[in-house]
Amino acid sequence: MGRKVRSICCIGAGYVGGPTCAVIANKNPDIKVTVVDLNQQRIDAWNSSQLPIFEPGLQEIVEVPRDGDSKNNRPKNLFFSTNVGETVAEADLIFISVNTPTKTLGHGAGKASDLAYVEAAARTIAEVATTDKIVVEKSTVPAGTARDLREIFASLARPGVRFDILSNPEFLAEGTAIRDLLAPDRVLIGSLKDAKSLEAAEALAEVYQAWVPKERILKIDLWSSELAKLA
Question: In whole angstroms, what is the distance from residue 110 CA to residue 53 CA?
Fold first, then answer.
């Protein structure tokens, strides 16, 4: 029996995290999906009728899992919260979907991605996790970031807690994000090649298989997946 995802946390309620998790929650009513962000204003907007971003079709996709549908016996399974620690602690799978702005200072200024938010998210995960987690890179990151995350987890994790890191890059275009999510050309899932990592990749693939044909979900190695987004 492989790993089953029952609870998802997404760190980052921005342009990628919000719509992606709304679609995942919409298509997987049996999975609890919580999007967390430290920006209270942004979370309040996601919980209102005035969403913080405009994408055709997003409102309808959000409302069904967020508000529930008593007529069709559909429970609520999409939540937006500022309670990062508690949500991370209870999740099986965690998307890191925070901003990676271009560096303005130091080595690589004006060109390289600033990974401060990604690393801060990883430290939070390592510090609060008491059970094994699947951690998924969703932000645009340089190739090799998974290796850096592994080092953070190795130095901060509690004894006996395992972190499997996957790369799952997004290919969304402004104005067609919901269409891109509902009918993707392909979903890339990058992982290491040991048995546990492959099991983690399969667990994420099963989440997408709720609506994406199996042949469009490509499981590849971590490095290739990170490079694919940049290329």
Answer: 26
Collapsing DSSP to helix, strand or coil, 69 comes out as strand
Lookup result for tokens 């395992």: 162
| CA pair distance 170, 168, nearest whole angstrom | 7
Phi, psi (5° rounding) for residue 87?
Answer: -65, -45
What's the full length of the chain, in residues? 231
* Pair 210, 27: CB distance under 8 Å: yes
DSSP 215: G
Contact of 185 with 193, CB cutoff 8 Å:
no
How far apart are alpha carbons 24 and 35 in whole angstroms? Answer: 11
- 94 - beta bridge partners? 9, 135
Q: Please give the Cα distance from 9 to 32 (Å, whole number).
A: 8
Beta carbons within 10 angstroms of residue 168's beta carbon:
22
Amino acid at 34: T
79 burial level (CB within 10 Å; 0-12, 13-18, 19+): buried
> What pLDDT does residue 108 have?
44
What is the tens place of the pLDDT at every residue in 82-100? 999 999 999 999 999 887 5
In the block, residue with structure tokens 């004006």? 110
This prediction's pTM: 0.91
Coil, strand, or helix at residue 104? Answer: coil
Q: Which residues contact 139 (CB under 8 A, 6 or more apart)?
A: 12, 16, 96, 97, 98, 99, 100, 117, 118
